[in-house]
Design goal:
Length: 231
């Protein structure tokens, strides 16, 4: 039955120690295997994803490293260490894709939203709601109430945005050394361009084991679903 430990099976704590010890000793492949074993048991956390990303990066498995750094970021979007390590891993990918320019205000607002996670924004919005209610009971509290209401709406919007991003199943990472992007979901269709391990794509459609993907510069096409992994 689920949750029952088999005789001789290592506990989660023992596996965690085993993985960390292997990493410290430079056996990054064994460390990654132990961390993956923890994941297979239903254990998940920002620290586990981050350590997995580090182990895979040291083991020169860039696709897996980028995958787990991104998963760690979803749980701790304001963590500078994860962002830095992700940027180092991304610099090792072969595809140099230029992003489509976006309005600076959109970038700025997203950067602010990423300073905290969904839970933190939710707690802040609740605190502002309570503050707004208290201010509204006082005389001359109109302007204070308006400011608190605007901040409440903004933080609630940030919380919703973070939750949507955390649950998003359209972002994926290329896992194979290279894969041809096709004009249609068929192996015999035309090759449009090639993507390499570690490149992040956005899935826009799915059909019979194939995924239609878009990359940062706007190019799109079809890849086999088994060659990418959802973040």
């Amino acid at each position: 039955p689920a949750g029952v430990q088999a005789p001789g099976e290592q506990t989660a704590e023992q596996l965690w120690d085993k993985a960390n010890t292997a990493y410290i000793n430079g056996d990054f492949h064994a460390a990654a295997d132990a961390y993956e074993e923890l994941l297979s048991r239903g254990v998940s956390s920002m620290k586990l994803y981050y350590n997995l990303g580090n182990a895979y990066f040291k083991d020169d498995r860039i696709g897996k490293a980028i995958l787990y750094y991104n998963r760690a970021l979803r749980l701790a979007p304001g963590n500078d260490d994860i962002r830095y390590n992700l940027s180092v891993a991304e610099a090792r990918t072969k595809d140099n894709i230029e992003d489509i320019p976006e309005f600076f205000f959109v970038t700025w607002m997203r950067d602010i939203r990423h300073t905290m996670g969904c839970t933190a924004w939710s707690l802040l919005s609740l605190a502002l709601l309570a503050c707004m209610q208290r201010i509204s009971l006082r005389k001359a509290g109109f302007y204070g109430t308006v400011v608190a209401a605007l901040l409440f709406m903004l933080t609630t919007w940030f919380a919703v945005g973070e939750r949507r991003e955390m649950l998003d199943d359209t972002s994926a990472v290329v896992m194979t050394a290279s894969t041809a992007v096709k004009s249609s979901p068929d192996k015999s269709s035309t090759d449009l361009f090639v993507l390499h391990e570690g490149t992040v794509v956005t899935i826009t459609d799915r059909l019979d084991g194939w995924c239609e993907v878009v990359i940062a510069d706007g190019k799109k096409g079809w890849v086999e679903g088994r060659k990418i992994e959802i973040i």
